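Pasting as-is:
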Amino acid sequence: MADSSSPIAGTVQAAQNDTYSNDVERRANAGTPMQRIFASQGETEQQHAAHACTKPTPHWGLEHGNEDFLFYCMAVPSWILMIVAAALAPYYRTSSPEFIGTMSAFLALHWAAWLQTAVGMLQRASWVRDESDLEDRRTFLRLAVRLNRLMMPTAGIALAVFIQAYARRHNLSDLAYWLLFLLTFIWNMVFSVMNAYNNITWENDRLREEGEHAYESTFLAILGIPS
């Protein structure tokens, strides 16, 4: 009998390891493309199909339609107030009660709409939800897109105001005017990019793996546009 430490025994053992590795690889690559996706997720096709039978988890908050209505009741006036504040500043200056009141109202409505959406997302975040609950995941993605629908227009308005205010900074002599709108642009743009990368792109790709197509175009979803 050959000793286990002999060259022959080592060759036999290596051949067995190669055969085992090839067999594992063959089984991993077997089946349809969808079966390979399910296998990579550590579940069978039957387990994956059971996701559709998972009951939606109840959450605190308004019904979907009412919640969207409340969101737009805050988002749209916030954009109008922002534009009005930008128009008032050159005439009344940023230290005037007119500008302070209008800008404060804009910030209150903007952050109320932002927090309303963020709270809904937190209730359905990946670290608290059941991953088999597709309804929760679809709602999370919808809210993430809605959050960018709030921030992208706000950033666009702020950028337009900043450009003209900065160009006239010597004539206006009001540092707070262009600085406030620059900061508004920065925080909305930074949060939009983070939300696009960490939430919208990630969740939309994962739902596609489940056979869901909530948003056909991820790029449009990042801009807050349904597709």
